[in-house]
Amino acid sequence: MAGTGVFAEIIDGDVYKYYSEGEWRKAASGKSVAIINPTTRKTQYRVQACSQEEVNKAMEIAKSAQKIWAKTPLWKRAELLHKAAAILKEHKAPIAECLVKEIAKPAKDAVTEVVRSGDLVSYTAEEGVRILGEGKFLVSDSFPGNERSKYCLTSKIPLGVILAIPPFNYPVNLAVSKIAPALIAGNSIVLKPPTQGAVSALHMVHCFHLAGFPKGVISCVTGKGSEIGDFLTMHPGVNCISFTGGDTGIAISKKASMIPLQMELGGKDACIVLEDADLDLVAANIVKGGFSYSGQRCTAVKVVLAMESIADTLVEKVNAKVAKLTVGPPEDDCDITPVVSESSANFIEGLVMDAKQKGATFCQEYRREGNLIWPLLLDNVRPDMRIAWEEPFGPVLPVLRINSVEEGIHHCNASNFGLQGCVFTRDINKAILISDAMETGTVQINSAPARGPDHFPFQVNQPPHKLLLL
Asked: Which residues are catalytic?
C-alpha cells in the first residue's frame, strides 16, 4: 500500500512530505496541494506546498552536496544507483498503485513503468562507468605548423545542480531518465514533480533515499507552479534544466538564464500510409500507437495521413479494432481510461466539436462521462480543422486523406512539432527517402512512434542528429 511499510515516513497524516537535506519534511506554512483522482474526480492525495524559502534551502544544500558528490568515485556512484534500482523494482506495487490513482494509468502499464524505470537506472549506471571512465589525449603536432611540444588531456565533468521537471504521464520513468544520468555524472538533482504524479515520484525518490545517497544530492520539492515554478526555473543556483511537458517549456526557455536546457515539448506525430502498405499491420499500429494510455503520450500517433486509394479500407480496419478497445477505470486494466483532468477533457472536447462543426466524419459517436472519453476516429479531416494541427493528448485520432506522398510530407513538416513520425510501405527505398524528408527527430518504419527501448536516443527535430528506426 502507498504510504505504508518502508514508505510510512514520507507521509504525515494525509499529506505527503517533501524531501530535502536527506530528510522528509513538512512545509513550514502548513499548506498543501490536492491531487485529484482522474477517475473519481475527488481528492486522492495531498502534498506539501513548499515556499520559496524552502526551495532556496534545497538549492543551497544541493549546491554544497554536489561538490562532495562529484569527488565520489565513479564506481561508488554506480553502486548506489544499482541499489536504488533494485529497491525501486522491489517496491513496484505501491508505486504502481499511486500511478493508477493519480494519473489513471492502467494497472498493468503502471507496474511496467516502475520496472522499466529500475532497469533504466541500472543501465545508466553501467553506461556511465564506461563513458565517464574514459578521457581523450591530444598531441599538438596533429595540427599544421606545430611541433610535438604540447599535450592535452580532456575529461567530462558535471554541470552542477540539475533542475528536473518530468511530466504527468510518466512521472516515474521520465523522472529517473533525468535523475540517473545526472547522478552518475556527479551532479546533484532538485526534482519538481508534476502535481498529478507527485506522490508516485515521492515514492520513487524514497527508493533513492533508502539506497543511501548522501544528504542533499537529491531533493524533491512539491507545490503550486504559480508559487514556486518561475522561482525554480530562474533560480541562480540551477546549472541546467531538464524539462518534459508542453508550452510551459517555451516560457521556461525565455526566463531561464544562460544555462543548458534539455527539453521535449510534445508532438503531433504523423503516420504516413502508402498504397502498398500492409493495412492490417498499419491498423494494429495505429490503434496501439494512437490509443494506448488514452493517447496521453508525446509519441502517440496524432494524425494519420493516408493515400486516398487505400483510405476507405484502412479506416474500416482501424474501426474494427477500435470497437474492441475496453473503456473504464484503470484498476480494471482497461485500454481507455479517464484523461488526467477535467481541463484536459474539456480541451479535447473543444477539438472534437470544432471538427464536427467543420464537417469531419465521426466513425464512432462522441461519448464522454466526466474525464472518461470513449475512443474516437475522425475521418475526412481537413487542414482547416484544429485537430489536424493541435495535440489532443486524448483518445481522438484524425485521418487526413492525401493524394501524393509530397502532400503528406508537407503536412508533417508544416506542423509546429517535430518529435516523431512513421511511414508504412513495403518499399524500403521509399521509406528511407520519405523519412529523410520528414522534419522530425525520429522516424519509425512500419511501426508506430514510441519512446524506447529506453537506451535508444530520444531525438527532437534538432540538427545535427536524426534517428531512423527499422
From this structure: 264
